[in-house]
């Protein structure tokens, strides 16, 4: 009844949906062929008629009846607009994923690092240019903000960038929590 009323899918297996092994009280074993479940599902008619057309009068009648049960006008308007908005947002998100363009960073990096200078002094330095550092290490997991995975190549590049900003005598950096 449930599968005939299309409330549940029809069972997969032998015709009529019987068990694959021997039913209780019989010695007959029903066997299945390879790929029969896939063939049976492929042979079913689709759950929805893709060729169906919703006419204006039917749409209007449906939402007229629906509006009787929704007392708040704002909720009713949201009920009407949400499917259209969801479809639009989904389309925009899909289009954005398919576009191959370089994204701009929203704001500069402001990572605080401990700089060790040649004279033995230490100072807290702020790294503001982290562009491309995640590609220098050649390791996985360095491009998602996990700076503790940086190797010596990345640290040498950070020292070079600080020296280019005017920090003379900088020997090394350390990642310290501040």
- Give the count of helical stretches: 4
Cα-atom Rg, whole angstroms?
32 Å
* Largest sheet report: 3 strands, antiparallel
Question: What structural category characterises the helix and strand content?
Answer: alpha+beta
- The total strand number stands at 3
Please report which band the strand proportion falls in: under 5%, 5-15%, 15-25%, 25-35%, 35-45% or over 45%. 5-15%
Give the rounded overall mean pLDDT: 77
Task: Please give the order of strands in the largest beta sheet.
Answer: 2-1-3
| H/E topology pattern | HHHEEHE
Indicate the overall shape: elongated
Straight-line distance between termini: 67 Å
Précis, in short:
The chain is α+β, with helices and mostly antiparallel strands and 178 residues long. The chain contains 4 helices and 3 strands.
Topology (elements, then pairings):
Elements: H1 36-43, H2 56-69, H3 73-98, E1 111-117, E2 122-127, H4 152-164, E3 170-174
Antiparallel strand pairs: 1-2, 1-3
Characterize the structure shown.
By secondary structure, the protein is of the alpha+beta class. It is built from 4 helices and 3 strands. It has helices at residues 36-43, 56-69, 73-98, 152-164; strands spanning 111-117, 122-127, 170-174. It has a 3-stranded antiparallel β-sheet, with helices on one face. The protein starts with 35 loop residues before the first helix and ends with a strand.
């Amino acid at each position: 009844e449930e599968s005939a009323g299309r409330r549940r899918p029809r069972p997969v297996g032998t015709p009529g949906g019987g068990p694959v092994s021997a039913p209780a009280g019989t010695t007959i074993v029903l066997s299945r062929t390879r790929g029969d479940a896939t063939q049976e599902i492929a042979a079913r008619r689709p759950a929805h008629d893709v060729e169906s057309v919703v006419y204006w009068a039917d749409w209007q009648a449906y939402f007229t009846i629906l509006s009787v049960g929704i007392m708040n006008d704002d909720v009713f308007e949201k009920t009407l607009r949400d499917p259209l908005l969801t479809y639009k947002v989904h389309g925009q998100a899909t289009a954005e994923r398919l576009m191959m363009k370089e994204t701009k960073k929203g704001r500069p990096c402001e990572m605080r690092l401990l700089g060790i200078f040649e004279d033995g002094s230490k100072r807290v330095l702020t790294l503001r240019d982290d562009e491309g550092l995640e590609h220098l290490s050649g390791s996985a997991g360095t491009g998602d903000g996990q700076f503790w995975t940086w190797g010596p190549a990345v640290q040498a590049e950070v020292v070079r960038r600080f020296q280019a900003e005017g920090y003379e005598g900088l020997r090394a950096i350390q990642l310290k929590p501040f």
